[in-house]
């Protein structure tokens, strides 16, 4: 094999590895679940990409080992409208967790997709 074929094969493999890494880091759903608590804050914020960001306070006693707050982002406008009207109320949220966050998807790795 000549050097040109080796370089071409190396570049192809490198591009495939980077594509796989990007998919698993930013688009692969690592976990799904629900969280319940009182909606503390919910706001539309950002400089370049405006996203909905929220925070719920989970009930129950926790002994300073773990925070009882749950920070999340919302991409669905319908879910955002429901949460904008629910400030201070108890809510149950269904979320998807990703390994990494994307600027246009929100600042958090937890993305809420529905409210129960």
Q: What structural category arises from helix and sheet content?
A: alpha+beta
Q: Please report the total strand number as a whole number.
A: 5
Rg estimate, integer Å: 19 Å
- Number of helical runs? 2
Name the shape in a single word. Answer: elongated
Topology pattern, helix = H, strand = E? HEEEHEE
**Average of per-residue pLDDT values:** 91
For the largest beta-sheet, the strand count, sense and barrel status come to: 5 strands, mixed, barrel
- Separation, N- and C-terminal Cα atoms: 61 Å
Strand residue content: 35-45%
Into which percent range does the helicity of residues fall?
Answer: 25-40%
Strand neighbour order, sheet with most strands: 1-2-3-5-4
How would you describe the overall organization of this protein?
The chain has 116 residues and is an alpha+beta fold. It has helices at 3-26, 77-84; strands at 29-45, 51-57, 69-74, 90-98, 110-115. Helix content is 28%, strand content 39%. The mean pLDDT is 91.
């Amino acid at each position: 094999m000549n050097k040109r074929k080796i370089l071409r094969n190396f570049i192809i493999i490198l591009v495939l590895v980077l594509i796989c890494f990007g998919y698993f880091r930013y688009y692969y759903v690592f976990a799904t679940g629900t969280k319940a608590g009182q909606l503390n804050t919910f706001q539309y914020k950002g400089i370049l990409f405006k996203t909905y960001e929220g925070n719920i306070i989970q009930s129950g006693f926790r002994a300073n080992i773990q925070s009882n707050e749950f920070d999340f982002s919302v991409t669905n406008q319908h879910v955002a409208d429901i949460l904008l009207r629910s400030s201070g109320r108890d809510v149950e949220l269904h979320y998807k967790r990703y390994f990494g966050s994307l600027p246009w998807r929100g600042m958090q790795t937890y993305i809420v997709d529905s409210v129960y």
